[in-house]
Write a structure and sequence with these properties.
The chain is α/β, with parallel strands linked by helices and 448 residues long. The protein is 17% helix and 29% strand. Strands 12-15-18-21-24-27-30-33-36-38 form a ten-stranded parallel β-sheet, covered by helices on one side. It is elongated and about 105 Å long.
Length: 448
């Protein structure tokens, strides 16, 4: 408590995030706000962005299906059983406000691209109601339109679905507002149901505020930051913009993308300077790539760590907790799952390495398969240092190939192999003298 202030004098702020309704326009089984952009749910992007406000309370108004969802664990959750509109959702949120909350910031959970700096701008406004507006380049967009008076103060927000003509107004409503709580509590009971949609609109608060002589203010922000996602088409537009942002950040940190627009990078990817990423690469969740690595074209990575100067691909698939240590190399059409590939080891062609450890300097020949699954359980394969596995070998786990051992090409290995031994497990080669001559002679006689 600030010295000399009574409890009642302390001003506190709250954030209310609207995330109820299923998002019918998405035509998806998943709740709209859980759809991901760059691997992070839209609602989480908004929850992360509002951290800049350091609010005393964060309230989420949500649908019954999301009530106990983990994503809401750090918020005060209010359920809106029937989605009766943004105004109705706001009313429910306001009922949950702690006493002493003086200012409320209202945001929608379907704007994943928002920039925390824009939200911060709202904080400085002294008005009773402040709204973020954006100059629209494309007037066909369905955003509500903000009407302003001659001094650029908002006087109303009109929804385009009820009046096509307002599309001529180029000032779009971003759906982000700051309210003085006293005003909000006075105005909310006066919000009316829209007769066409049967919903109550939070946007009608602007006109109500003007009729009661409250002060309104406009904050202008970039349209791109407030792209509202209501359909899967808009979701793909948001993804495209987010991908551009993510790869730009990595490139400015010294990561080279050969054709950045062809690769996908999850929001949480860590990539060291000097790493080169070729075209068509997918960097999914939980990927850590150190410096000077090479990720060659069309490789698909998730849940893996790639250490300095390792090389992956082209056409490699790494998943499920994989570590590729320094200078190791995974080549084309190699799938690695739940395995560690130690320093300088190589698996360059056409292999499956699952639940295995591959020792330093080992070489895995083309077509090697670890058989890790018997239909019920998974088993481990241990390959020691400097082991040479001949091409087209099958290693039936659990099995241990000790340091320095050789496995002859085409072997099926079911028993452990000792250090520096050679294991061969294939039928002995036979050779029949001049067999081809008599074979051909037989056929030329038959066909003549
Ligand atoms: C809303 C605004 C529009 C603005 C746009 C910005 C209204 C009436 N319109 O339109 O002016 O330009 O956002 O993107 O507010 N929600 C609930 N309960 C409900 C309805 C919606 O919690 O009953 C939540 C949704 O989960 C969503 C947000 O509120 O996150 C906005 O609702 P949505 O239906 O997407 O409104 P828009 O049509 O985009
Ligand atoms: Mg929307």
């Amino acid at each position: 408590m600030v010295l000399g202030q009574t409890l009642a004098q302390i001003k506190m702020k709250a954030v209310i995030i609207l995330s109820a309704g299923h998002g019918k326009r998405m035509k998806s089984v998943l709740s709209k706000v859980l759809h991901k952009v760059a691997g992070k749910p839209m609602l989480q992007w908004v929850l992360d962005a509002v951290k800049i406000l350091n609010a005393d309370q964060v309230i989420t108004v949500t649908s019954p299906e999301l009530e106990s969802h983990e994503i809401l664990k750090d918020t005060d959750v209010v359920v809106q059983a029937v989605p009766l509109g943004t105004g109705d959702a706001l009313k429910l949120g306001v009922q949950k406000l702690k006493s002493n909350i003086d200012k409320v910031f209202l945001l929608c959970a379907d704007t994943p691209l928002l920039d925390p700096k824009d939200i911060k701008k709202l904080e400085h406004s002294k008005a009773d109601l402040t709204v973020i507006g954006m100059q629209l380049n494309d007037l066909s967009k369905s955003y509500g339109r903000i009407e302003c008076n001659s001094e650029c103060h908002p006087v109303a927000i009109r929804e385009t679905k009820h009046n096509e003509k307002v599309k001529n107004i180029s000032l779009g409503n971003a759906g982000v507002y700051a309210f003085r709580v006293e005003m909000l509590k006075e105005l909310l009971p006066h919000l009316k149901i829209n007769t066409e949609s049967g919903e109550i609109y939070a946007t009608d608060l602007v006109e109500l505020a003007i009729t009661k002589s409250y002060k309104t203010e406009l904050v202008i922000a970039d349209e791109e930051n407030f792209l509202g996602v209501n359909t899967l088409v808009e979701l793909s537009q948001a993804e495209k913009i987010m991908q551009h942002r993510i790869k730009t950040r990595h490139m400015l940190n010294g990561v080279q993308f050969m054709l950045p627009e062809t690769s996908y990078v999850n929001y949480d990817a860590e990539i060291g300077a000097g790493t080169i990423i070729e075209q068509g690469v997918h960097i999914g969740e939980n990927v850590h790539i150190a410096k000077n690595a090479k990720i060659l074209g069309f490789s698909y990575l998730s849940n893996c760590t790639i250490e300095n100067a390792a090389s992956i691909g082209p056409f490699a698939h790494l998943r499920g907790n994989v570590v590729v240590e320094e200078h190791a190399s995974i080549g084309n059409f190699v799938e690695v799952k739940g395995s560690t590939i130690s320093k300088n080891a190589k698996a360059k062609h056409l292999s499956y390495i699952g639940d295995a450890t591959v020792g330093e300097g080992a070489n895995i020949g083309a077509g090697t398969i670890t058989c890790n699954y018997n239909g019920f359980e998974k088993f481990k394969t241990h390959i020691g240092k400097n082991v040479m596995i001949g091409a087209n070998s099958t290693l039936v786990a659990p099995v241990m190939i000790s340091d320095g051992a050789y496995i002859a090409a085409g072997s099926v290995i079911t028993e452990d192999v000792g250090p520096n031994n050679l294991a061969i497990s294939r039928t002995q080669q036979q050779e029949k003298n001049a067999w081809a001559l008599s074979f051909r002679a037989k056929y030329s006689k038959k066909l003549s």
